[in-house]
Amino acid sequence: MTTAIIDYGSGNLRSAEKSFQRAAREVGGGEIVVTADPAVVRAAERVVLPGVGAFRDCRNGLHAVPGMVEALGEHERAGKPFFGICVGMQLMVTLGREFGETPGLGWIDGAVEKITPDAPALKIPHMGWNGLSLAREHPLFEGVTGGDHVYFVHSYHVVTDDPAHRLAHVTHGGEITAAIGRDNLFGTQFHPEKSQAVGLRIIGNFLRWRP
Predict the structure, then answer these.
(1) Secondary structure of 1-38 in the HEC alphabet?
(2) Which residue numbers are catalytic?
(3) pTM for this one?
């Protein structure tokens, strides 16, 4: 069983690789590989798409890897587990509105919007630890409870068209989407690889997930 972490020039690949490898050892999660090879992605049972920076830059970086977007589409249509992290999660939706409008992968209907806190004293980017509010049960939140803290650093978040696709939020001058998903797709705005025990729990759940 192989989990492929996509290398397209964006994301904390070393940190993510180490966290997924640690979780894999704990749960018997198979091999973790960092790859820019679409053939490896097609063969993988699970795929992780990290992302750090601006939506448009990450989208362009992903499209610059020959065959990668097509391989990811095949993975999604095959119903295999997929995990998007930070901008990797944002890329799952229809549209990003950072520095103009940029199309995403379109797997979940919604848009990436700038965070606008209702209190002027609250700073953007939203950075640091915040407590999760879980909208509903999900296999990747097994062992995670409302109020558990995870680590964020971002200025934009996803607004889903269907509220059922928002799995969790945090509060920072209003509600900010923390996790989205449907069927075989799951994504977190927070960084599980930086979220200590809670993040490792979520990663381990992903490595055992059978959508």
Answers:
(1) CEEEEECCCCCCHHHHHHHHHHHHHHHCCCEEEEECCH
(2) 86, 191, 193
(3) 0.95
